[in-house]
Design a protein that fits this description.
The chain is α+β, with helices and mostly antiparallel strands. The protein contains 5 helices and 3 strands. It folds into 2 domains: 98 residues, Double Stranded RNA Binding Domain (2-Layer Sandwich); 31 residues. 49% of the residues lie in helices and 13% in strands. It has a 3-stranded antiparallel beta sheet with strand order 1-2-3, covered by helices on one side.
Length: 142
């Protein structure tokens, strides 16, 4: 699935935009223009997504979803409201695409011979170091 397919599936009425004043530097523009854009998408109430897709989104994007079930995306990097709205929308679709992608199964591998030897060598060195410390403390007690 890609961004274009999701754009066609998700109804525009399910996405809510709100604006407010941006924070940070920017001179007079920041103080008088509402350029910060918040995109809200209620995952629970969405009719465009199946139950399995909703579950994946909740698991993979849990840090971006509010208690009410809203996926919240904020954009305030651009100087205009329109650019911030476009950026927020783009970020939203990319997030959904990445959350809905199936992760490939991990193939279990065994350690290489070289890495096994290296691990054993490190263990021997560490062991001898500790032995030396033990011997030196015994000699100091006399």
């Amino acid at each position: 699935m890609n961004c274009e397919e999701l754009r066609k599936r998700i109804h525009a009425s399910e996405i809510i935009f709100s604006t407010s004043r941006s924070s940070g530097p920017g001179g007079q523009n920041v103080n008088k223009v509402n350029t910060k854009v918040e995109l809200r998408f209620n995952v629970n109430e969405s009719e465009s997504l199946s139950e399995q897709e909703k579950e994946k989104i909740f698991i993979r994007l849990k840090n971006k979803i509010t208690i009410k079930g809203d996926l919240l995306i904020i954009s305030q990097s651009a100087r205009t409201q329109l650019l911030n709205k476009q950026k927020a929308e783009e970020k939203f679709y990319k997030l959904l695409v990445s959350a809905l992608k199936d992760k490939p199964a991990r193939k279990a591998t065994s350690p290489t011979i070289a890495s096994s030897r290296e691990r054993l060598e490190k263990k021997k060195k560490r062991s001898s170091l500790k032995k030396l410390r033990k011997e030196s403390t015994l000699n100091n007690d006399d």
